[in-house]
Specification:
The complex is a heterodimer.
Chain A (H helix, E strand, L loop, with lengths): L9 E12 L2 E12 L3 E5 L6 H9 L6 E6 L14 E4 L11 H9 L5 H14 L15 H13 L5 E5 L7 H18 L2 E6 L2 H5 L4 E6 L2 E6 L1 H8 L4 E7 L2 H14 L7 E6 L6 E7 L2 H14 L4 E6 L2 H12 L1
Parallel strand pairs in A: 3-7, 3-8, 5-6, 6-7
Antiparallel strand pairs in A: 1-2, 1-4, 8-9, 10-12, 10-13, 11-12
Helix pairs in contact in A: 2-3, 3-4
Chain B lengths: L8 H8 L4 H26 L1 H9 L1 H8 L10 H26 L4 H5 L2 H6 L5 H33 L6 H7 L1 H26 L5 H18 L9 H12 L16 H25 L3
The chains are: A alpha/beta, B mainly alpha.
């Protein structure tokens, strides 16, 4: 490790990184940096190279050319640097046999002494509102609970940098709001840096100081959320909602649409989920934040259970097309 | 952790500071212990060892069905050695090593569990070593328990006395088998763990390798060649068991017991070192 003084203002960096798998170029000439204490949104449609970039940063893979560093060192060969990193993977990967508390405690022992790991496991379970299921096996958890477990295991050792891959995927609006608060609290209390990927700009825009837009393996724009928002303003945001009573929710939204501006609920239609074939609603909005706030109120007041809530990246895809084709 | 101001420049510098040799040793030993614990739990709960155990007990069930409880032998120890060397080791042992190694190699890579280890402050070499130890111990334990159960089963039907008496009079045969299992595990486990680390094709490659070793090398064109692992294992079996219990007649005359022991150690160390080299380079 270099003994030269490093002020660690830049704690993560990809510079002209290229990574290909056979003939498929996953990341081509990507460059960005992560400043200490910042929250960076890493936005791109599915297949744009977000996960590959994250794997480069974490040292799971090596760039074919270019540089990937964390805290000034090559993460592929330096395991010590990972004491400072927490990672929230996209996939829900947990050992089948393990309970929530045991999982957190055991894996945290790579970073912390046993007693501290146990205490922190309980603290972090409370933070993600899973303390009451601490002794249940994770395989019995719902998708949202598993998502929170992934966040918990990344936060347990109070890392300097949290790298999250689609961190808010599968969270309902209320839990998503709580996770936003948790991230903001970690940043203000511990100066934790966050690097959060998403295919939905809206998901991370509110939190971030900087947004990096990625498309087809290249960074096509970087800047403040305002700058990026200005670029995307005219693109509609589409949301797929599966509930226990889609018709009732549709009816409530139509009534709501009549009393509120067209930007918040631009259109509503029924469709079948391409993956599960379940009936679902597809809502287009130009004001996703307002829409999510109103949706939360509607489902709580009318006791509707949301089974799944997914933002699609069609709006972003349109923006990327605009940006890349001029 | 409480006494350190989290995520200050000092905290980051302190975390990344060069460690003294005792600090490195303590840290790596601690990471090894955690990795070992997790590997054991993963192996136990994956239950792939159970499949091997069930397959191993197949001849026992058959012997009960056809009322040949000692499988044509006159004594329990003869039946036991015939069963262990003639069936388990000859046909199943390598597949057992493959099955046992999969949950901490190929399976973890395929379901991306391996990522969760690699983003921890643990060296890839430590992860490999912990898995190597865990799989070896598991293979030895599973086989040792199976051997004990089957030896007891055969002793039940030995006319020379009670099962306990027959077993205790022949415990040397059991301990010789344990030594043989340990040597077999050292010979094969590292190979199959290494093959498993290849990734999602680990099972397929492992199966091809096991079949190749089993049928092509052992039974066909390289049969009883001194450079084949199995030839050396048969040589060691010949050395371990008394001649009236087991004798392998096709051994090359040039192959001594010392040669086979050295071969086993070199083969075992070779795969271990190759594994370290491979996981250091491998992209997950």
């Amino acid at each position: 490790m270099s003994k030269s003084k490093n002020n660690f203002e830049t704690i993560g960096r990809l510079e002209h990184a290229i990574k290909a798998y056979g003939e498929v170029v996953a990341v081509s000439d990507i460059s960005f940096s992560i400043k200490r204490g910042s929250i960076v949104g890493f936005i791109g449609p599915n297949g744009s190279g977000k996960s590959t970039s994250i794997r480069l940063l974490l040292g799971l893979i090596k760039p074919q050319s270019g540089i990937a560093t964390l805290f000034g060192v090559d993460p592929f060969v330096n395991s010590q640097v990972k004491e400072l990193v927490g990672y929230v993977p996209e996939e829900s990967v947990f050992p089948q046999w393990i309970t929530a508390e045991e999982y957190l405690t055991t894996f945290a022992r790579y970073h912390l002494p046993r007693e501290v790991a146990k205490r922190r496991a309980n603290e972090v379970l409370k933070e993600v509102d899973l303390l009451d299921v601490a002794n249940k096996r994770i395989r019995q958890f719902s998708k949202g609970m598993k998502q929170r477990m992934k966040i918990a295991q990344a936060f347990i050792h109070k890392p300097a940098l949290v790298i999250g891959d689609e961190i808010f995927n599968g969270l309902d609006p209320l839990i998503r709001h709580n996770m936003f608060e948790l991230i903001e609290r970690y940043r203000s209390e511990y100066n934790t840096t966050f690097f959060l990927s998403s295919h939905i700009l809206f998901e991370v825009e509110r939190l971030t100081d900087k947004i990096i837009l990625l498309y087809k393996g290249r960074t096509i724009a970087q800047g403040s959320p305002k700058k990026i928002r200005d670029l995307i303003q005219d693109q509609p945001h589409s949301i797929q909602i599966t509930t226990d009573d889609n018709t009732k929710l549709a009816s409530l939204l139509i009534n709501y649409k009549e009393s509120i501006d067209d930007k918040t609920v631009s259109s509503i239609q029924f469709q079948n989920d391409a993956r599960t074939d379940d009936k679902q609603l597809l809502v287009l909005t130009h004001n996703p934040r307002q829409f999510y706030e109103q949706l939360t109120t509607l489902v709580v007041e009318n006791e509707i259970t949301i089974r799944e809530l997914r933002s699609t990246d069609e709006g972003l895809e349109n923006l990327f097309m605009t940006l890349t084709t001029g | 952790m409480e006494n350190v101001q989290i995520n200050t420049l000092e905290h980051i510098e302190a975390t990344l500071a060069e460690r003294t040799t005792p600090e490195i040793f303590n840290h790596e030993f601690n990471q090894f212990k955690i990795s070992l614990l997790l590997a054991f739990k993963t192996l136990f709960f994956s239950r792939k060892w159970l499949l091997y155990a069930i397959l191993s007990l197949f001849p026992i069930a058959l012997s009960l069905l056809i009322d040949e409880k000692l499988m044509g032998s006159e004594t329990a120890e003869e039946a036991f050695i015939g069963y262990y060397l003639g069936f388990i080791f000859l046909l199943l042992f390598t597949f057992g090593c493959l099955l046992t190694a999969l949950p901490v190699s190929s399976d973890e890579i395929t379901d991306q569990m391996m990522d969760l280890y690699l983003v921890r402050p643990v060296r890839r070499e430590t992860l490999w070593a912990a898995r190597w130890v865990a799989v070896n111990v598991s293979v030895i334990l599973v086989n040792a328990i199976l051997a004990l159960l089957t030896f007891f089963y055969f002793s039940l039907f030995d006319d020379r006395g009670s099962a306990i008496a027959v077993m205790s009079n022949n415990m040397d045969v059991y301990w010789q088998t344990i030594i043989f299992i340990c040597l077999g595990s050292l010979m094969y486990t590292g190979v199959f763990l290494l093959v498993g680390i290849i990734g999602n094709k680990g099972f397929t490659f492992g199966l091809i390798l096991a079949l190749f070793e089993q049928f092509f090398l052992t039974f066909l064109f390289l049969e009883n060649e001194p450079l084949i692992p199995r030839t050396n294992m048969f040589n060691l079996a010949d050395w371990l068991y008394s001649d009236d219990l087991y004798e392998y007649h096709q051994l090359p005359s040039s192959l001594s017991v010392a040669d086979s022991l050295i071969y086993t150690v070199i083969f075992c160390l070779g795969t271990f070192v190759l594994g370290i080299y491979y996981v250091r380079k491998k992209e997950f």
